[in-house]
Amino acid sequence: MPIARDTLLWLSRSKFLRESIIKVAPARAMSRKFVAGEKLSQALDVIASLNAQGIGGILDYLGENTTTAAEAEAYTAEQIAAVQGVIARKLNAYLSLKLTAMGLDIGPELAEANLRKVLDAARAGDIFVRVDMESSEYVERTLAIVIQLWDDGYTNLGTVIQSYLYRSEKDVQDLVVRGTNLRLVKGAYNEPASAAYPDKADVDAQYVKLVKFMLDAPNCFCGIATHDEAMIEAAKTYARQNAIPNSRYEFQMLYGIKTSLLKQLAQEGYATRAYIPYGTHWYPYFMRRLAERPSNVAFVVKGAFG
After folding, report:
1. Confidence (pLDDT) at 294
2. Active-site annotation, residues
3. Is the dihedral of CA 278, 231, 293, 55 positive or negative?
4. What is residue 288's predicted lDDT score, i.e. its pLDDT?
5. What pLDDT shows up at residue 305?
6. Contacts for 177-182 with beta carbons within 8 Å, 24 or more apart?
7. What per-residue confidence (pLDDT) applies to 188?
């Protein structure tokens, strides 16, 4: 992987830089390319606009690695408010959340209890909730909670699989037998070669393999989350050749990236959905997006020091 990407991913975890960057006007302005805003109402407005174009939404209140139960409780309360906002405005949207923001670093019991609160609120309004996947050190604990709650009857729950992890094929096999709704991504964290494929070609090959496996599983709904047009075409071709109905999968993309392609897919009759992050804790997410396109760094640096 390019050094620039590794450096940006490392910087995404820097508290010092976070406190500095969030005060820089150009960085805040540029973050709006990828983040809907700092308030729930702004994110809901974006989703309403996308719904009018036939595109669904994935609502993500940004936050991760809370260190106190009070912080985890506040994050949980915002998720419940988001559920209520989606219901009140009758939006085509579901929630995506992180267990470290719900207290996973404090203890799995706290994260699970908070997730249950959100799932109960969401189930009352027939809203789906997806547990996002974080770095490899959290995968085992995250899946344990997801599987436990699924087995407890929370079928409005799904999770995310990252194709760059060696373990992902086995994880997919374990989850599709339950009929779990899965979102497949390539992965955006800086992982060691002991945990993840270091070469892009291997990550891509694994991505296509997992898409096909999910599409072949009759009880699995697959969120194909990629901006890679080769991956999209591979999925479309496989689904068409194997008579897999469009209702079994959808294409998902990040807010602010290849929006025209997402609209095109919607116009072609495919189910589509945009991932809409919001909130004041946008720095780590923003840095991971910069890592995917390091040329954007020059704009931020020029604005900060020019």
Report:
1. 54
2. 132, 183
3. negative
4. 65
5. 41
6. 177/217, 177/219, 178/147, 178/150, 178/151, 178/219, 179/155, 179/219, 179/220, 180/146, 180/150, 180/220, 181/128, 181/130, 181/157, 181/220, 181/221, 181/223, 182/158, 182/214, 182/220, 182/221, 182/222, 182/223
7. 80
Question: What are the 10-residue block averages of pLDDT along the chain, 306 residues in total?
Answer: 55 55 57 82 97 97 92 98 98 98 97 98 97 96 97 97 98 95 92 95 97 95 95 97 96 91 96 93 68 53 43
- Determine how many CB atoms are found less than 10 A away from the CB of residue 306: 7
